Amino acid sequence: MPNTDARRTRRDFLQKTGAALGGLALSGTALPASARGARRRPRAMSSHAKPLGVALVGLGNYATNQLAPALLETEQCRLTGIVTGTPSKIDRWRSEYDIPEKNVYNYETFDQIADNPDIHVVYVVLPNSMHAEYAIRAAEAGKHVITEKPMATSVRDCERMIEACEKAGVKLSVGYRLHFEPHHQEIMRLGREQVYGRVTVIEASFSFTSRNTEAWRFSKEMAGGGALLDVGVYAIQGARYTIGEEPVRVRATGYNTRPDVFTEIYETILWDMEFPGGAVSTHSTSYSANVNRLYMMAPRGWARIEPAFMYNSVAGRTNEGPMDFPEVTQQALQMDDFARCIAADETSRVSGEEGLRDMKVIEAIYRSIDRGGRWVEV
Ligand code: NAD
Question: Which residue's C-alpha comes closest to atom 30 of ligand 1?
Answer without folding.
Answer: 125
